[in-house]
Amino acid sequence: MRRAALVLAAGLLIGATGGDDPLTRPITGADAARWLEPDAPLPVFAGLGYVGPKRVKQAVIDTGKGLVLIDAGLPEGLPVLRAHLAELGYRIDQVKWLLVTEPHYDHAGAIAAVVRESGAQVYASASAAAALRNGISGDEDPQRASLIAYAPVRTVRVVKDGQRLHLGKVTITARAMPGHTPGSMGWSWQTCTPADGCAKVFFAASLNSLTAGTYRYRDHPQLVAGLRRSIAMLRDEPCDVLLSNHAEHSGADLRAAARRAGTTPDPMRAPGACKAMADKYAALLDAQLSREDAASK
User: Lowest CB count within 10 Å: 34, 69, 78, 220, which one?
Assistant: First the structure.
């Protein structure tokens, strides 16, 4: 009954706005084609899918009692999400829990629409939750000057670093990853199937030290320290499978391509991937700070 009411409300809203739905209205303008570059859904293991356009990915986890979705992507990417879930045998209204890596529009823009269709409960860090409720980050975000607003997410459950969420038959641990945004969060869990055995999976938040406008990391030593802690945590993470919203950040794009090409042993199992991603972004942070220091002389 609850889901039927949600669908009816969605229909009424679209009708009342002449077909212009504020929760799915495109927000990226001329950049939409780049953001929505096609990709195929990847069944990583039974009960774990990697879905979404090439540049904006989500993970879907079948807990046996509903789906977990990690990130939701852009509002204009919602048809892709629906289609990819269908290819894996799921529906968007089966999403019961939605975990957020960061509150930027490319990760969170479609959350309000997914929640409307599914009634999913949203989980995020305290800082990310505040941004989600506003539909955009505040001035504390290094990229604030270039961010795009999206439909706010009114109800968000706040989780802390190390907190375990028991979702259906899966336990997922929140891992604080501040730096790219103050409230970034990674998510780790173990998946076990008779065919694939067990694997420790990590869905990483972005670690790139991008800035916009006049923001300088050197002026925010606490965020720099947080980013270094995030990098150190990821370096030590015992992960077998590493995924990320932007697949190229973690190398998941190359591993997925190798999987599709039939490479053996399974390239999605890459125990060194977490360390490799950490080392990559440690070097980029050092380069960013060096550029800022040089510019201030």
Answer: 34
Return d(Cα 105, Cα 272) in angstroms, integer: 30
DSSP 268: T
Backbone angles phi, psi at 131, to 5 degrees: -70, -40
pLDDT in tens, 167-195: 999 999 999 999 999 999 999 999 998 98
- C-alpha to C-alpha distance for 283 and 191, rounded to whole angstroms: 31
Contacts of 100 (CB under 8 A, 6+ apart): 70, 71, 107, 108, 111, 122, 123, 124, 128, 132, 156, 185
Helical segments of the chain, H only: 2-16, 32-35, 78-87, 105-108, 111-118, 126-134, 221-236, 247-250, 252-260, 273-295
Select from 41, 162, 51, 187 the least CA-distant residue to 110. Answer: 51
User: What's the rounded Cα separation, in Å, for the pair 58 and 70?
Assistant: 6
Q: How far apart are the first and last CA of the chain?
A: 64
Check pLDDT > 50 for residue 265. yes
68, burial (CB in 10 Å: exposed 0-12, middle 13-18, buried 19+):
buried
pLDDT at 9 over 90: no
Judge whether residue 150 has pLDDT over 60.
yes
pLDDT at 16 over 50: no
Answer yes or no: are the C-beta atoms of 199 and 191 closer than 8 Å: yes
Maximum separation of any 2 CA atoms in the chain, in Å: 64
Q: Which amino acid is at 161?
A: D
Token pair of 166 as six digits = 């028991």
Gyration radius from the chain CA atoms: 19
